[in-house]
Design a protein that fits this description.
- This protein is mainly beta and 274 residues long.
- Helix content is 7%, strand content 56%.
- It has one helix and 18 strands.
- The protein has one helix spanning 2-19, and strands spanning 22-33, 41-54, 57-64, 76-86, 89-94, 118-127, 130-135, 140-146, 149-155, 161-168, 171-178, 181-190, 193-198, 203-209, 212-219, 240-248, 254-260, 265-273.
- The radius of gyration is 24 Å and the shape is globular.
- It starts with a helix and ends with a strand.
Amino acid sequence: MKKLIALSAVAVMASSAAMADVAISGSASVTYDDNGAGASSTSYDADLSIVGTTGATTLTITMDLDGSSAANDNITLTGVDLTTTIGPVTIAADMLDEISIEASTVSGGQRTESVDTSVTVSLDVPIGDMTIGLDNSGDITLTGTFSGVTIAHTIKDGSDKTVGSASIAGMDISLTNDAGDSSWSIGTTISGIAITLDSENDVSAVFGLAGNTLTVSHVGARDVVAEDADYYHTDAVDSYTTVALSRDLTSGATLTATYSSLDDSLTLKAAVSF
């Protein structure tokens, strides 16, 4: 009997040790939208993430749990990713072939189905204050931080990309140049109000403290994006403003009320994360 108890204790400890390397998280929400002048609607969403880690190897599985059980599609895999590190070499495998074709023809999504699985092998070598990275697509990335400014430059076939970020005088600044197409964003805090501005004429301000915030955002107008061989077009959108009030409840959920001037709608969303 004593041996049986001892074996049981060892088994429990081994099981606990194995579970210590598995992290489970998720979220769920229910949303009511009055849709302005249109008919009101309700929607819901539930997601689950399982992350298993052993040493320098991590497997991440993500699932979308909401759907129709009658159609037997209420649980949908959204990601299966494996990463491991061997010295300066990192291997990343995307093992899920998602449905990438877009049903809507005005969403800017893909027009044709593509294979989304992949294996990427990258090499990072530190040299002084800079790290040189090389992946199996042939892209070379140079990354380093100099005098508080972080620069990452990726040398690609015919289209280089440079990303820079820095905190200067209380402002967080980021700049991106991708094959000649530049974008930027600036974030700062003034009298306790967090303000963000970007190159697309978007600006947002967050008032209040964590758990009880008011966020006012203005989204700049967007031009139509023409359709090409790979992607559908997207319609032009006028500028609009949103006001969102978010509050943590004693039940553990978060209630958010959002008004949008785009369609004069009010949305109520209750969400919980674990």
